[in-house]
Amino acid sequence: MKPAATIYRLLPLLACLLLALGGCGKKGPVKPLAQPLPAAPEKLAALQQGNLMQLDWEIPVSNQDGSPLTNLQGFNILKMRYDIADDCPECRDSSTLLRQIDLEFLKNAERKGNRLTFWDNDLEPGYGYQYKVVAYTRRNRDGAPATIRRPFLTPAAAPAGLQASAHDRMVRLEWQPAAAPADGELLGYNLYRRSSGEILSSLPVNDALLTVTSFEDFGLQNGIRYSYTLRTVLHRGNTRLESTASSAVVATPKAGQ
């Protein structure tokens, strides 16, 4: 065989060797880069309020890789019940979907700024409950979960004797002192308010826990009807919880009162 012919036969092999980093032969379609997934919701908290469990969390603003989260659609809430005395929730995970919260069609949840609140009412004393909150994208892809566990204890009785008197742009509230529970410690009170046409807020009116049996709610609008409920705040074992809500009282501030 002539040397020139040999060189021509080796050219394809030499080309493959030179293009080894890029591959040799027919290339397949270029695969798109995987889209980043949402980071876990922040500051997940659970608080028993009477017969309810209130879940709060902050909406994540970034993906797990630190890039901005721009395609968030909502959250999946998963729930698992376990026996407080005998079970090991860390040893298994039988969580099932409790609720899906779509941020564009918000139902069964409250949003205030970057904070979401959800209430679960399917609970039984003597059991603990694990909740996982997972952000999902518009393509229905799940991000990282945030997880919390809380025991559900027998609800404490509501405080008694709540009364309200209306004044100029202010409502004065008073109630009877609650007795300390035999199995825990009375920490104070939280007062909740709603005005006509609004739902009851998940945040109390008082910035700090009330340790007295009266409160003056200033800065209100005259002519608007306000409704108030009161809950005691207790400490049982390692758990902080609130009692069931008192009966609601109403007052309408008016100039000159």
How much helicity do the residues have? under 10%
Mass-distribution shape = flat
Main pleated sheet: 8 strands, mixed
Main structural class: mainly beta
Low-confidence stretches: none
Name given to the CATH architecture of the largest domain: Sandwich
Radius of gyration: 29 Å
Average residue pLDDT: 89
What amount of the residues lies in strands?
35-45%
Any idea of the CATH topology of the largest domain? Immunoglobulin-like
Give the terminus-to-terminus CA distance: 116 Å
CATH superfamily label of the largest domain: Immunoglobulins
Question: What is the number of E strands?
Answer: 15
What is the assembly state of the chains in this entry? Answer: single chain
N-to-C series of helices and strands: HEEEEEEEEEEEEEEE
Query: Number of folding domains?
Result: 2
- What is the CATH C-level name of the largest domain? Mainly Beta
Q: Your description of this structure?
A:
The chain is mainly beta and 257 residues long. It has 2 domains: 42-151, Immunoglobulins (Immunoglobulin-like, Sandwich), CATH 2.60.40; 163-251, Sandwich (Immunoglobulin-like). 6% of the residues lie in helices and 42% in strands. It is built from 1 helix and 15 strands; from the N terminus they run αβββββββββββββββ. It has one helix spanning 3-18; strands at 42-49, 52-58, 72-83, 96-102, 109-112, 115-120, 127-137, 142-151, 163-167, 170-174, 185-195, 214-218, 226-236, 239-242, 249-251. Strands 1, 2, 5, 6, 11, 13, 14 and 15 form an 8-stranded mixed beta sheet that branches. Strand 5 and strand 6 (115-120) form a beta hairpin. The longest helix is centred in the N-terminal third of the chain and has 16 residues, at 3-18.
